[in-house]
Amino acid sequence: MAFRRALLLAFLLPGAAMALDLHVSPKGDDKASGRAADPLASLEGARQAVRRLPRPLVEPVRVIFAAGTYRITQPSPSTRKIPAKPAGPSPTKPPRELRS
Q1: Which one of 7, 14, 72, 83 is separated from 95 by 20 to 30 angstroms, measured CA to CA?
Q2: pTM above the 0.90 mark?
């Protein structure tokens, strides 16, 4: 019984764990497909490639970076808002009651 279960899992798990792989390399090109033989060149290129995928995604997306140095040439857009400066005393001045 345990053997049958292990054999069944061996056949089912690889299909369940499949993912779309996007490859990125410092020697790549952001106009490339992102396949292992045709890698993208930057984090921004990978982000754009993921955004162009049809929705809803039916499999996980995995971005694989090759060894190397990646230069960030533009700030990454943030989806969360940066909170405003908190109200209250300035952190550089002590509260009035502590001033002499």
Answers
A1: 83
A2: no
The sign one gets for the Cα dihedral 20, 25, 28, 30 is positive
Give the whole-angstrom CA distance, residue 93 versus residue 12.
64
DSSP 9-52: HHHHHHHHT--EEEEE-TT--TTS--BTTB-B-SHHHHHHHHHH
Strand partners, 22: 63
Least confident range from 30-34, 58-62, 77-81: namely: 77-81
Residue among 14, 11, 30 nearest 22 (CA) = 30
